[in-house]
Amino acid sequence: MKVGAAIEHQGRQAGAGPLALTLGEPAGIGPDITLLAWLRRNELNLPPFYLLGDAGFLERRAKALDLKVPFAAIAPDEARAAFANALPVVATGHAVTTEPGRPDASSAPAAIASIRQAVADVAAGRASAVVTNPIAKSVLYDAGFHHPGHTEFLAELAAGNGKAPQPVMMLWSPVLAVVPVTIHLSLREAIAQLSTELIISTARIAADGLKRSFGLARPRLALSGLNPHAGEGGSLGGEDQAVVAPAIDVLRSEGIDARGPLPADTMFHEAARKTYDCAICMYHDQALIPIKTLAFDDGVNVTLGLPFIRTSPDHGTAFDIAGTGRANPASLIAALRLAERMAAARAA
Fold first, then answer.
1. Is 85 exposed, middle or buried, given 0-12, 13-18 or 19+ CB atoms closer than 10 A?
2. Matching CATH topology for 1-166+306-348 and 175-294?
3. Is residue 37 predicted with pLDDT exceeding 60?
4. Is residue 134 within 8 Å of residue 313, measured between CB atoms?
5. Domain ranges of the chain
């Protein structure tokens, strides 16, 4: 059974906690798509969620977009009851003064506080999963943020005072799920950091996540080669034979259904996709180009390897259209739905 089909079998659990939705970069489209998603809650039967942020700021954005959205300033345990009639907002104590498309000094503190509180709420059982709106890394870096991105920050929060888990980024859609082994690195650095051990640990976490959160009893993993034609027997590079193939041998010895290394240029057509549940790719673009081509509007970013569920829209802040009414909430809606279903799968 494919990932998309398996996840559809997970229904809504009575009494399950609401989803904690982060503010993201307030100058981006995160607030816009949040408002638009809530307005479609009944039409799409969306799971209850609450936003962690500044209600006054959201009211100003709704007014600018001419959206009639009532707000309810609540505690997390009141979100489910409030959701039908108002967008629940849990205050983080950080006022936001930014305008659409123009981050200011209030942006980074508000975005970071929202993420921290969402993780704390899930850890305390007040929410069932974290859904994150897009952040602007450059804005956070200017404010002293020292993590490459959301994923690494979430891993640190998950660790507390212990060792941070290895976070694994999955991009999921109903037609394709992909995991890049190396993520936000230059191509030169990605090749330098790629190792048999990293491939093994990434694939293990992906297989475990597909079992626990997607309901697949025996996930099928297809591992790409690094080089064109998976190295063409070594004539186009030796990494596939020396680095990738040994990792697949180890995974198979552990009972994981893994095959490869496969030529990346023939892995993603329709017939090929039917033969596996998740593609494990060696670097960022090798994984993200096919899924964003096939499912740009409804792809979801999922972080595996954490002790809590985290999903996110598969797009950025889109400063150029923030506050214009042109933002598409489809990916956020998909992220909310997937988070609920993953939480139900884990509970089952």
1. exposed
2. yes
3. yes
4. yes
5. 1-166+306-348, 175-294
Q: Which fold has domain 1-166+306-348?
A: Isopropylmalate Dehydrogenase (3.40.718)
Q: Burial level of 305, CB count in 10 A (0-12/13-18/19+)?
A: buried
C-alpha to C-alpha distance for 295 and 282, rounded to whole angstroms: 20
Q: Which residues face 88 on adjacent strands?
A: 72
pLDDT in tens, 184-227: 889 999 999 999 999 999 999 999 999 999 999 999 999 999 99
The H or E element containing residue 269 is none
The 10 Å Cβ neighbour count of residue 213 is 24
The CATH fold assigned to 175-294 is: Isopropylmalate Dehydrogenase (3.40.718)
- Residue 325 is encoded by which pair of tokens? 């009414």
Q: Which 8-state DSSP code applies to residue 254?
A: T
Q: What are phi and psi of 264, to 5 degrees?
A: -65, -25
**CA 268 to CA 179: how far, in whole Å?**
13
CA distance 98 to 322: 12
Buried b (16+ CB within 10 A) or exposed e, 235-274: eebebbbebbbebbebbeeeebebebbbbbeebbeeeebe
pLDDT value at position 3?
Answer: 52
The whole model's pTM is what? 0.90
